[in-house]
Design brief:
6-stranded antiparallel sheet, 10% helix, two-stranded antiparallel ribbon
């Protein structure tokens, strides 16, 4: 394995007024040779090359880390904050932030010895884990109250939906009903 390499670019805007601040940032991060864990669906019975690699061991399947992907993540983040005028009860600051990000797979890279097993080593479940297991959207609303040396924070967080891919069971589940006859005592 080798170290991942990343190239990133970002662009941001900032506004700061007397009571209001606003920031907007966009970014793009390209990761080459991303380290991933392969799927565990690689068994020796189905793939002769795996059987050959496992040799005389009693292992039935393999799962390993590899530089298996090139990915690109793009996103945008915004933060708005408002400082209320100071009062006898202290200072209150309101904030609202949100973000959107998306990760895409640019290339699947498999060791040359295992060429042809891309769909097995990085199956649908593992691809979903890399691209959709984190929410695309999130937001936070907050209130900070400060009175002298005492500070309190209240934050509400929202995380958008995400996807977890699970392998289907090998066969449909069946329920067997067993009737028990009570014997007279």
């Amino acid at each position: 394995m080798q170290a991942e390499t990343a190239n990133s670019a970002s662009l941001g805007l900032t506004y700061q007024g007397d009571a209001v601040t606003f920031t907007l940032d966009s970014y793009r991060i390209a990761i080459d040779d991303r380290v991933i864990l392969t799927s565990n669906a690689v068994n020796r019975a189905s793939y002769p090359i795996i059987d050959q690699l496992l040799g005389d061991s009693t292992a039935q399947s393999v799962r390993f880390f590899t530089n298996g992907l090139d990915t690109t993540t793009t996103g945008v983040e915004a933060v708005l904050a408002y400082q209320l005028p100071e009062q006898s009860y202290g200072r209150i600051r309101l904030s609202l932030s949100g973000q959107y990000s998306k990760t895409e797979i640019d290339a699947i890279k498999i060791p040359s010895l295992l060429q042809g097993l891309e769909a097995v080593l990085l199956n649908h479940q593992e691809q979903v884990r890399q691209t959709k297991a984190n929410p695309k959207y999130s937001a936070t609303a907050g209130i900070t109250h400060q009175y002298g040396a005492f500070t309190t924070n209240l934050r509400l967080n929202y995380f958008g939906s995400y996807t977890l891919a699970h392998k289907p069971p090998p066969r449909p589940l069946a329920i067997k009903i067993i009737r028990v006859k009570r014997l007279p005592i």
